[in-house]
Amino acid sequence: MKPERTARRLEGLRTAGRMPNRMALQLKRLAIGQNVNDGWIAKIVILLVLTVIAFLYVRPIIDMISTSLKSLEDLIDPVVGVIPRHVDPQNFIDAWNGLVYPQSFASTLTIALFGSAFQVFSCAITGYALARLQFPGKNVFFFLTIVTFLVPPQITIVPLYMIYQQLGWLHTPFVFLVPALLGQGLRGALFVIIFRQFFLSQPKALEEAARMDGASAFRLFFRIMLPLASASCLVVFLFSFIWYWNMYYEATLFLSKGFTPLSIRLSALEMQLIGNQSLTFGADAGKDPIAEGPKMAAAFLIILPPLIVYMIAQRWFTEGIERSGMVE
Asked: What whole-number distance in Å separates Cα of residue 176 and Cα of residue 197?
């Protein structure tokens, strides 16, 4: 055999031996990846974990919508699962009438919209003052702000009730709007801290340049600093709106008559539907099939407006959290 032919055969055998090794390395690299989270195995595990977590969060909403669309026969029949045999809109009609939805919606929207707008304005001013201005007792005021955040609302609810009663504000929206305008209200201290941390992160050279141009503290805040804090304003507004919309404990004490929000109407809905009669006892008490469908429909009607607001503002909300420094 010629030497050239022998060399070519040996080279062919070596190449044929390398090809399976190369393919095995590429497959291993695709499966495991160079880093921990870029291989197919890691991606599949992450996808499964996220799917399970998402299902745990979405399952109550699926059950709520499913129950609200079921007829009484479907609710009683244990064979019927998530998908109802007949879609019955009567639950939504009963919920709409039981909640007195237009009137209760207007009351809830008034408190949530104006309360959150007032909190954005007052907490931004307070946060800016605590971050940038120098005045006697500044640290004491910030300490008191943190104290109001740490103290549970159940401790201050009785003195507040007596004060509001003397002022004649009970069963009116003033019990929530006036504290919001003064920088308090639901979790007002938290919003002050968010704004304070944002203004502390801004460069001082910006303020110094504005002061050299003759800008006053008032003009500096409203023309320069507040527009820069638009992301924080959006985050605070959405958080405040959702908390005012869903509040129950404070509303039960201060708004039990007259100016009634949706959360209080929901708690009274079952009594309106079945009175003192109940078809269930023991561990299933409170799950009366007569009231279960309308209650789920009422819950869906209550959470629908905040869901629409969040779906519209989702992109700005996510960007706002990133820019405000809340995730750092």
From this structure: 25
